[in-house]
């Protein structure tokens, strides 16, 4: 099976604390499981830098997947900066570095009661403008903010956009697909209570579907509750294949080709 993990966070400290051998061992395990590519996503300036460093460390190696980075400011990290213009300049500079494939993850997250929605929307809009300026793909985070994300994204039709860990309705997915957007699905596809996610995966064209882990989060069944690894993508690919009525290898190949197309790799 050939796999592309479209969204992960191997710079997360949980690997050093909870995975035997740390992130390096997890990446070697992923390669043995057939994972050929990983995009490691930044959430702020520091983790974007770490993602670029991790991507550079994979160059020329065949014992780990080839790693690329996305760079940007996650909505829940937007409050810690005093000057949005300075932050945007930093993201612009990071985006020009080698092995940077996208702007992200960016978006809106209204899950927490102390959310400053105004600041989040300002950062989201500004980074979408930056992606348009740079002509780069965009990775979107949308948690409990479907309506506002939709209202903003309708102003940016024409950008290459991927909804990471898509959790909206099938109806909204169809609308996004009509705009040419793509969707990444992870371990949630394997959860018994995730029928809405499976309906969304069936509602969109197969050429718009990617697979991800969001590692170290959201490990698929039968490893739900454990630290996630790209090596577990075989379970997610099998779940997608079951929905589509094809073999797991075929589903994985389709998702890999879609990810390479989206990230221009």
CATH architecture: Alpha-Beta Barrel
Mean pLDDT: 97
Tally the structural domains.
1
Placed side by side, the strands forming the largest sheet appear as: 1-2-3-4-5-6-7-8
Please tell me what the overall shape is. Answer: globular
Helix content: 40-55%
Unreliable segments (pLDDT under 50, ≥5 consecutive)? none
Helix vs. strand class: alpha/beta
Instruction: For the record, give the distance between the C-alpha atoms at the N and C termini, rounded to a whole number.
Output: 19 Å
Assembly category: single chain
Largest sheet features: 8 strands, parallel
Strand residue percentage = 15-25%
Total strands: the figure is 8
What's the Cα radius of gyration?
17 Å
CATH fold-level assignment: TIM Barrel
How would you explain this protein's 3D organization?
It is a single chain. By secondary structure, this protein is α/β, with parallel strands linked by helices. It has one domain: Alpha-Beta Barrel (TIM Barrel). Helices cover 43% and strands 17% of the residues. It has ten helices and eight strands. The chain has helices at 14-18, 22-32, 45-58, 84-95, 117-134, 146-153, 170-178, 195-203, 233-244, 248-263; strands at 3-8, 35-41, 66-71, 100-109, 138-143, 161-163, 182-185, 209-211. It has an eight-stranded parallel sheet with strand order 1-2-3-4-5-6-7-8. Helix 7 links the parallel strand 6 and strand 7. Helix 4 (84-95) runs parallel beside helix 5 (117-134). The radius of gyration is 17 Å and the shape is globular. The two termini are 19 Å apart. The mean pLDDT is 97.
């Amino acid at each position: 099976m050939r796999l592309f993990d479209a969204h992960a966070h191997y710079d997360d400290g949980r690997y050093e604390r909870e995975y035997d051998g740390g992130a390096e061992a997890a990446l070697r395990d992923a390669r043995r499981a057939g994972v050929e590519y990983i995009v490691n996503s930044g959430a702020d300036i520091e983790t974007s830098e770490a993602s670029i460093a991790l991507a550079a460390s994979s160059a020329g190696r065949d014992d780990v997947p080839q790693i690329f980075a996305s760079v940007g400011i996650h909505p829940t990290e937007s409050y810690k900066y005093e000057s949005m213009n300075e932050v945007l300049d930093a993201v612009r500079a990071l985006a020009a570095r080698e092995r940077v494939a996208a702007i992200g993850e960016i978006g809106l997250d209204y899950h927490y009661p102390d959310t400053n929605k105004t600041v989040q929307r300002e950062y989201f809009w500004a980074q979408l403008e930056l992606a348009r300026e740079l002509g780069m793909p965009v990775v979107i985070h949308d948690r409990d903010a479907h309506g506002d994300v939709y209202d903003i994204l309708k102003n940016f039709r024409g950008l290459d956009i991927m909804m990471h860990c898509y959790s909206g309705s099938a109806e909204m997915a169809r609308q996004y697909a009509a705009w040419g957007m793509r969707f990444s699905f992870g371990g949630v596809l394997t959860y018994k209570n995730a029928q809405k996610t499976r309906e969304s995966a069936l509602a969109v064209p197969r050429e718009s579907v990617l697979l991800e882990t969001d590692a170290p989060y959201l490990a698929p069944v039968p490893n739900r509750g454990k630290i996630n690894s790209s090596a577990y993508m075989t379970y997610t690919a099998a779940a997608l294949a079951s929905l589509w009525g094809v073999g797991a290898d075929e589903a994985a190949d389709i998702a890999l080709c879609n990810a390479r197309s989206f990230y221009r790799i």
